[in-house]
Amino acid sequence: MATYDLIVIGAGPGGYVCAIRAAQLGLKVGVAEGRATLGGTCLNVGCIPSKALLHATHELHEAHTNFARMGLMVGEPQVDWSRMLSYKDDVIGQNTGGIEFLFKKNKIDWIKGFASIPAPGQVKVGDDTHEAKAIVIASGSQSSTLPGVTVDEEVVVTSTGALALKSIPGSMVVIGAGVIGLEMGSVYSRLGTKVTVVEYLDAITPGMDGEVSKQFQRLLQKQGLTFVLGTAVQGVERTATGATVVHRSRKTEEEARIEADVVLVATGRKPYVDGLGLDALGVQMTPRGQIATDDRFATSVPGVYAIGDVREGPMLAHKAEDEGTAVAEILAGQHGHVNYGVIPSVIYTTPEVASVGLTEEQLKAAGTAYKVGKFPFLGNGRAKAVFQGDGFVKILSDKATDRILGAHIIGPMAGDLIHEVAVAMEFGAAAEDLARTCHAHPTFSEAVREAALACGDGAIHA
Ligand code: FAD
Ligand code: NAI
Q1: Which residues make Cβ contacts (< 8 Å) with residue 117, sequence separation at least 6?
Q2: What predicted TM-score, i.e. pTM, was given to this entire model?
Q3: List of domains in the chain
Q4: pLDDT tens for residues 237-279?
Q5: Catalytic residue from among 55, 247, 439, 441
Q6: Of the N and C termini of the chain, which has fewer Cβ atoms inside 10 Å?
């Protein structure tokens, strides 16, 4: 039993960043985490392992497609799946170990075990009850499944099972053309699996800029993924060798079946609050099962706060981290703040897809007068040199003031390029500010500058 200024429940990106920032500001901090390692979903079964497998399989794809074109004659690449999984596990270990080091460095106590909140100001882990002036819930999220679908994490898997399959399947049906479906679908497609993605809506990646979404689908199809859109999955039946996905077209109502060795259910995630005792504590929830909070992350119970996937907003690690920083600063008497208008999102496929701010569809719906500046990577010397001319940069700026309202990039290093625009947006920059900033040659970021120029008199290389 110990007394803390702050106890954080959950050591994912929201919780661990909150704890470190609070410790930096002089608070005595404990973090309850029930997993065997720190880092939450993101480091253990999310962002980091998926990016390791995306990296390895991207290199494989390069070896198959581009090595010989550059005179690199290395023979037929072989995949050792168990070594690839060990590489992924090593990467996880380095990252989770890194958080443990940061906890020690910042004198943060890791209270090992699953926590509940028996009363305001109290956190119970095992038989011990700890006192805390403030409690931050950062318990994250879990995969949501569909009615008629039973997950066994071997044949019918969520992302967690898909990150650790015993062997590379011959065929896979992915249910849901969202971020997880397309990232993990890409991993297995590059490994030679026949991947079919079944999506309820008529387009992939709902909410994404429509033009980007269409081009993205075309490029993924070129890589071998098959899409069945506008189709609702009715159920999944186990067979002797795999599973059968039963689906029905929303337009024609026709029912069809697809057999596969493995089925990945990637239809979204839901907040995880099991065992916290929130009902008894009287914490208000939203109709979507999230913990209801005000703009200072306070729940309906005094002294109890919530951040990250468990509250509203995009389920992204960096959103959770920024909320962690903001709530720690608020608890230390400062003015923590998150700008929800400038949260980038990235899909780490090849090509990468990234966006920040508003889409053209959102601007049209709001009746905002806007300009579009577009530039294709085919006009970028660096992109052509590395066979990555597919895709484009699109910048949207206010028609009257030229202030940047959004940016959407599909192409090489899109996930890094987007931050140039994000910083510009934080400073309230106009597209002309980006266009007049000297960009080094030859870089992919010249394509961002050219798109900004296209919001004015026109790009130079288009
Ligand atoms: P989490 O990371 O979920 O951490 C919550 C922690 O709380 C867990 O460790 C859990 O064990 C612990 N916990 C829960 N209840 C208790 C309790 N009662 N007591 C003690 N501990 C408890 N986001 C990105 O931004 N970029 C990506 O590339 C990306 N890739 C992803 C890939 C996959 C396959 C998945 C599944 C997710 C990915 N995400 C990505 C989303 C990202 O992982 C989440 O948005 C992020 O982890 C949320 O952070 P969090 O701190 O809110 O919660
Ligand atoms: P998602 O919300 O991105 O996509 C789910 C998809 O499933 C949607 O397109 C939806 O229309 C579809 N769907 C729902 N029900 C269906 C049905 N019955 N039949 C067919 N399709 C159906 O969710 P996803 O991919 O599971 O990811 C969960 C969260 O994890 C996301 O919020 C995302 O932000 C986060 N994440 C982020 C990553 C990144 O930033 N690179 C990577 C992976 C996950």
Answers
A1: 9, 123, 124, 135, 137, 276, 277, 278, 281, 304
A2: 0.97
A3: 3-143+270-338 (3.50.50.60), 156-267 (3.50.50.60), 342-454 (3.30.390.30)
A4: 999 999 999 999 999 999 999 999 999 999 999 999 999 999 9
A5: 441
A6: N
